[in-house]
Amino acid sequence: MGVSATTAEASSGREHIRAGVEVLDFDPLMDDGLPLTIARGWNDPVPLQTQYIGDVATASAGIVTHRLVHTSVIRSYPEKPNGFRLTNANYQGCFVETPPDYCKALIDYGAVLNTVFDRRSGSACDALRQGRVDEVWLWGGPWFGYLEWQLVSPQTLCPAVRNPFVVMGFSYERGEPEMLHDLGHRAEGLIQAGIGFGIWDRFDGQ
Predict the structure, then answer these.
(1) Is the four-CA dihedral 105, 174, 177, 24 of positive or negative sign?
(2) What is the rounded CA–CA span in Å between residue 74 and residue 195?
(3) Any residues with CB less than 8 A from the CB of 133 and at least 6 apart, and which?
(4) Are 67 and 19 in contact (CB under 8 A)?
């Protein structure tokens, strides 16, 4: 996340956090040729992103701004461990009272971040390594296997990326309030990691 501050802003204690974002929107085609979001009547990520970016900027008094650098719309399911991918048929099996284990599995974050979905722009790891973006947003449906947020350590999932970065996991089945909820958990997690649970628990209202 890029941080810059002018002399005047520094003297007033203000700084600007400008985050460039790589978006990977997994919206697979159903058997009738319609994208999952259309077939299920779920939300279009584009207006949700616009609202989210505006609300974060407003809530932070303009200190935090996001810029969508590149979006890949991917007409397939994201890869899970051991190369497993959902299909339209077995995805339907996730919507039962006791879903199979493959539904509960998280995605293979390393595989997803290193896959080239757009030959012109490369992978999400390429965008991070080249400094074009600061974080990654994932879109998908229920059971796709996303965490709300994940802080990735340097030179781990993206071996050539030397700075930590965050991957957000958003669901187009849900709305913008859930996006902000995810961001709240991200803030809580990073604050707890930075100052410890003892101090945090004195002020988190729980």
Answers:
(1) positive
(2) 39
(3) 20, 21, 22, 69, 70, 124, 127
(4) yes
Instruction: Look at residue 101 and tell me whether its pLDDT is greater than 70.
Output: yes
Question: Residue 203's pLDDT is what?
Answer: 62
Backbone phi, then psi, for 66, in 5-degree steps? -110, 145
Take residue 89 and report the two structure tokens written for it. 């048929």
For residue 133, count CB atoms less than 10 angstroms from its CB and return exposed for 0-12, middle for 13-18, buried for 19 or more: buried
Return the half-sphere exposure (C-beta side, CA atoms, 13 A cut-off) of residue 131: 1
**Residue closest to 53 by CA, chosen among 93, 15, 91, 17:** 17
Closest of 37, 18, 16, 10 to residue 140, by C-alpha: 37
Q: Would you state the pLDDT for residue 52?
A: 98
Direct distance between the N- and C-terminal alpha carbons of the chain, in angstroms, rounded to an integer = 30
SS3 27: coil
Q: Can you tell me whether residue 189 is helix, strand or coil? A: helix
Q: Is 24 helix (H, G, I), strand (E, B) or coil?
A: strand
What is the widest separation between alpha-carbon atoms in the chain? 59
